[in-house]
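Lecture 7 notes. Example A: sequence first, then its structure tokens.
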Amino acid sequence: MKQILTLIAALALTGCQLANVMPQTPANGKAGDEAKSAYLSDRDQPLETAPVMDVRSVPLDSKADPLSHAAQILGEQLIVGLSEARVKRFPMTVLPFGALPGHADYPSVGERVSESLFYSLQANEYNLIDYRVAGMPDRAMPDISQQQITELRQRNRIYFVLIGNYAHYPGGLVINARVLDTTTRQVLAAGQTHVANELLEGQLPGYDPLRAAERGMIVETGGVPAGVRK
């Protein structure tokens, strides 16, 4: 009798050990699904949604100066990239914008946009330096050489430079801007905006509002300097 009880106890102990060794099957396989999701291959991983970048234009009902409004839009776009790069405290300058090769040149447009960008960035506490006060030549983007950008870094301790260009198309003016590292030439931020011809006071056939502004003409005279009869 004692031998039988000993045998039964041994069998019971063996059964408990086997139960501990055998893996437990989760209900409805949920745990298995969770474990599998952590080991998905790159092909099975869900793709990230690409960011949508809309082209921003100066609203037709804008009450502000169109070029100043365009500079404000560019400033907002540039600040997004500059914030990610974390370069707010480093010295930066803004160069006058120039016309893209093959497009009409309007020097006053480049000056107005760059001056407005000085305000937009300074208002957001960026460390700006006026290179013209420091003796650098006043040059627009298409004429800036590699040596001049290097001089900005070596002579004036300017780490980043905001450059840009514009092009006048039949529909209006397209303005581009970007911030470069003066050492690596890496683009840290970029922006683009569009100013419709309606905002540039151009409604007459063959009338170029930007060229008229350069020559001191007004729309009401049909492109003739004020005080001069046709």
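Example B, a different protein, same format:
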Amino acid sequence: MSLIKYFLPAYYLRRPKRLFVLSFVLIAGVFLLLRRQHKARQVQALAAKVHALHSQKQSMVAELEKTRMGAHGKSKEGEEAGEEEESFRVVPVNLRTRGRAGVGERGRGGGRRGGKRGGGRGGDEGVEEKREAIREAMMHAWKGYRQYAWGLDELQPRTKTGVNHFGGLGLTIVDSLDSLYIMGLMTEFDEAKSWVEEKLSFEHDYDANVFETTIRILGGLLSAYDLSGDPMFLTRAREIADKLLPAFATPTGIPHVYVNLASGRGHSPGWTGGSSVLADLGSTQLEMVALSQRTGDPKYANTSEHVIRQIEKVFPSDGLLPMFISTTTGKPTSRHITFGSMGDSFYEYLLKVWVQGGGTPYVQRYRGMWEKAMSGMMTKLVQHAPAPNSTATASSTATNTSSTSSSTADSTTESSSSTGSSKTPSSSSSSSSSSSSSSSSNSSSGGRVAYVGESQRGNIVRKMEHLTCFVAGMLVLGAQTVETGSQHTEEYMALAKELGRTCYLFYNLSATGLSGEDYTFGDKGMRMQGRMYNILRPEAVESWMYLWRATHDPIYREWGWAVFQAFQKHCRVENGYVGLLDASQDPPQQDDLQQSFFLAETLKYLYLMFSPDDVLPLNQWVFNTEAHPLKIIARNADFPTKMTTEPRRKSDGLAEDR
């Protein structure tokens, strides 16, 4: 009981001195306790800061080591042996001093002075003004996007809003980087570069389409790196590639169609029966190989090229694969063969990975598969139909122009282009080598036209999509690399010219001068049927650019310019460019979407068509299927840690300043 009194308030109220002492002790104790806790928090904060600085230092050291080993330095083996072998180094392509048009000052570029700089025989009149008009169109499209949709995926010009159809990855910005650079729009390029560096995020809970993300985002970043030399683009490219790799975690290594960027979960949609899509699984190799070459990390190339090794197991004798392939068994799950949507770029990449690798024995499997597929295509899918009468009302290139010029396109010509000297066949010699070339000299007012049909369950479908127009350009590229590749260059060039003309008719026969999506062919000719909209697609002008580079026949520039004028007339609005709901109707109804590929592909190919051949020469650069140019680097036994290539120079791939 004597101790309990010390805990009773009444005891201290009767003794004030003891109350004071007790209060002092309690206050002092609380003060000391709080001070100790504060010190502990300071120590914890300091420790966290030290840890963060240490982690940052480790990351910087690791990144520098990767850069030294992968892109800018010599291999350790070379250093130990005292060798002077150079590895792949990126030096920015110098476009900043090339005048307003991006490739040369007025009167000093490749336009009016022609021949030696890629102007060729004809087609040079007003070429610089046309190139400048295309460049202005790029500026107009970019300005509208910058003002109303900055940071979003695509612009809706008519309603002055932006939309995220692509997970909010800033699609238009990334897709446009190289076009801005090539056209010399450096202020806009630098602005886009800053956004990519500071704002672009891949931490999205979004099911990304592996194919689209690879060709647009990864391809766009790699191309910006190859052109500018800025390592930031390579870092961001590696980030998105790492997000895509989980899609390949299947029993066969054949990727799913989609992968969630946040969780890494891959899946394929129900409409494919859970299978992968042929164009998707076969259109990652160019970008993944390029990434391995530039970083020195083989995992990207190994992952994507394993897919081709799986496909080789089921590759048919005619080289034609159906559009769906099982991710579980690696076997086809459909009987629909097409060079259009869902099939197209598989065949394109078989050739282009071979071109990318310098045509060495280490990429010969790709060329062999491509040759086999071309033989199958020309034997089983290439068809002919009566040519329609060319009675278009909106195209600036009339029937008599195409008729008289097509014979020029098919005459024997020799040209020293960027891919080396080549001889294109005369119509007589080409017809003797292949039945597919029999109508190469026919005008649009008579004869027959060639097209690439489809096969469903073994039956030919007499239909060709606008997407299939890429085949003409692919054939030109295959023919121009004949020295180490094909023995069928005359066949390829003859068919390329025929298909190029067919795709021109897609436009020329329309009331607006612009094509639809689908064309059917019958005994009475061809007609637009089914999907009649136009969304500013690039495949026709892409092929005409290749045909121009190979032949320098002015008809291809005429066709390209006619299409550009139709875009200007029907698709240009106050804040950008839009598509047409029905290209067969004049006046047409417009949609409200500026597709990113209009800036990335269509305008770029048009611009290159009116530029000198030594602007992105085709023996030094290869375009991915989104028109993003990648530097050609020969493959060797030490791939990807060593490169058999010369160091980059400032003038590499571009016309010299005059």
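Note on Example B: Residues 66-87, 95-123, 390-445, 642-658 have pLDDT under 50 and may be disordered. The first strand starts at residue 154 and ends at 156.
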